[in-house]
Amino acid sequence: xxxxxxxxxxxxxxxxxxxxxxxxxxxxxxxxxxxxxxxxxxxxxxxxxxxxxxxxxxxxxxxxxxxxxxxxxxxxxxxxxxxxxxxxxxxxxxxxxxxxxxxxxxxxxxxxxxxxxxxxxxxxxxxxxxxxxxxxxxxxxxxxxxxxxxxxxxxxxxxxxxxxxxxxxxxxxxxxxxxxxxxxxxxxxxxxxxxxxxxxxxxxxxxxxxxxxxxxxxxxxxxxxxxxxxxxxxxxxxxxxxxxxxxxxxxxxxxxxxxxxxxxxxxxxxxxxxxxxxxxxxxxxxxxxxxxxxxxxxxxxxxxxxxxxxxxxxxxxxxxxxxxxxxxxxxxxxxxxxxxxxxxxxxxxxxxxxxxxxxxxxxxxxxxx
Length: 369
Ligand SMILES: NC(=O)c1ccc[n+]([C@@H]2O[C@H](COP(=O)([O-])OP(=O)(O)OC[C@H]3O[C@@H](n4cnc5c(N)ncnc54)[C@H](O)[C@@H]3O)[C@@H](O)[C@H]2O)c1
Known about the structure:
- The protein folds into two domains: 2-150 and 317-336, Rossmann fold; 153-309 and 345-365, Dihydrodipicolinate Reductase, domain 2.
- Strand 9 (247-254) and strand 10 (259-265) form a beta hairpin.
- The chain contains twelve helices and 15 strands.
- The radius of gyration is 21 Å and the shape is globular.
- By secondary structure, it is an alpha/beta fold.
- The chain has helices spanning 2-14, 36-47, 61-70, 83-87, 103-112, 127-139, 154-164, 197-200, 203-206, 208-219, 318-329, 337-356, and strands at residues 27-32, 51-57, 77-79, 93-96, 116-119, 144-146, 171-179, 223-231, 247-254, 259-265, 277-283, 286-289, 295-298, 306-307, 360-361.
- Helix 5 (103-112) packs parallel to helix 6 (127-139) and helix 6 (127-139) runs antiparallel to helix 12.
- The protein binds nicotinamide-adenine-dinucleotide.
- Nicotinamide-adenine-dinucleotide is lined by residues 32-38, 57-60, 63, 82, 97-100, 102, 120-121, 147, 149, 189-190, 206.
């Protein structure tokens, strides 16, 4: 492990990439934003044998204290100002789990400082933020992993592989949804930014980015245009000042011709059938329920469902382990900047279509991927 890490680090450093090519056993890592998700990521970093929590950062003192306590075995430095982390040349890897509108700026600064970056989804809430981050990530020699962790799900990966092999013929249509039984808690951990569209991007960009990424993955393409409607039908001005929608109904057309029908709401009663999340993938020979059962349903009167991909043991922190595998072993990123940016832009495209109430073309977003 040490040898591999040393070789990789030296290789990268020689290419002009890293902040420090020291031969320490464990990769000095910082977590910026130690709220709900950041705490979870921190627990994942602490489990990695090849990582050391060198610093934690949050501008809320109580969350910073909690993170420092959780990571006490590594005795991390604590910062309220994230730029202090960027300035620390001895920190090689950074996790970013702040509100979405801050991701792009923080990730760009970290990449420019030669750090490996694990950036939570969405990688940006505007096309301009995504465009700037794409440029920085492409110019950098370090690892970039976006928090689209479904890309590290083994069973889903196997389903996608089998579908790509033609298990359901040609993929022609996808129907997907993200329906919740209630709004995100108004007094929850992220209640102070979530309901402000300029900070979260709204439900579609902040949450459905996962579902849309699964659609992009299985379709093997990206949208060329989108149209649809959305609004605030239930939680009007609730919480006060709310600027995000609570429902969406969208249609996407993909570059390869596949059509996607996507809906989202936060008022699906628990007992009403067809709630929660699903991605139904329709092919010329049958369909697959990608998110949950991974069952293949063949077309035809006598068709019987069969297992497309066996259930596998999924490690809780597989995506984080994959991040360190990229650094230490030169493994490919499980969700590189193209994946992260395409997912964010797919959501941004849908959001723009709802706001402008017109068909929006991918090319209108002005981002070269
Ligand atoms: N991949 C996933 O499944 C998943 C799940 C949940 C959340 N997330 C993402 O993680 C991110 C954080 O979400 P959350 O639910 O943890 O929110 P949160 O509000 O609980 O945590 C965000 C933290 O960032 C801190 N912060 C804000 N501005 C800061 C700044 N300038 N400098 C330092 N710290 C700052 C806040 O004080 C807060 O503690 C979001 O982008 C969200 O989309 C991803």
